[in-house]
Amino acid sequence: MHLNAARHRWPPGWQSTQIFTCLLSKSLDFFSSDINDRRIINWRDYEKLFSYIEIHHKAIGEASTTYLFSEVAIPTIEQELPGARYIVMVRNPVDMAYSLHEQQLRSFNENIEDFRQAWKLAPERRAGRHVPPGCKDPIWLDYPSWCRLGEQLERLYSIVPEERVLVLVLDDMKENPRREYLKVLEFLGVPDDGRQAFPVYNPAREWRSRRVGRLVRALARGVAWSKHVKGLLPKRSLGIVNRLQAWNARQRPRPPLPPDLRAELEPTLPKMCESWNGCWGVNSRTGDQKRRR
Hints:
alpha/beta, three-stranded parallel β-sheet, two-stranded parallel sheet, 9 strands, 11% strand
């Protein structure tokens, strides 16, 4: 069984011990060959990430944020891993775009701190203009395209039977994480472990120094690759990279989206959710989404 979370990752601290996710589960994106930012590019290295599967694991998978967006990921998964199951987490597309912009700033793909300006530059960047030198793929900066959730879900359902897809809404998870957790366990056929605590994972942060952050990020990737793919370092973590990341990062609550900008973008919600209404009801003013059974 293969688990794929698209767009938002299930927090690792919330994971059942009966579910195994690969050793580089932080947005691996292996099957998204149309996006130039993959950490693993061959099947042999990909398989190594699942080398610690044990008999008690009832579900096996990985979590990548690009599979719903990619035009090739899901067809490739269906070819290589027939019968795979998919967990997709979505949210209000406007809030999603705002969050994605912050993530790209932290990942050094983006260099424009003002979200309004970055959003308006999307058509130019789609054409390869105004792209920062360190950006791994201009597609990361095409915020409107990432948020066309209706089109992406329609493509998923055109390939994968509905019984193999579970769609969750981020706001529902915030409201009642235990309920959403049980949905996942039921979908995967994993018994309830009685978990009641669901701590906040990965709060909004910023680098104290972007230069140091870039170096530490490259170091973290290199260490993970050396451990889990090449076997050059012991699997036991010394915590050095984590301490460096913690030292250079500080929590910064994300400022709310300016009301005038939200009012400007909300009329685009119906277009972003176009073709979605067959399986979702979407309030185009608020973006509220409720799954239709």
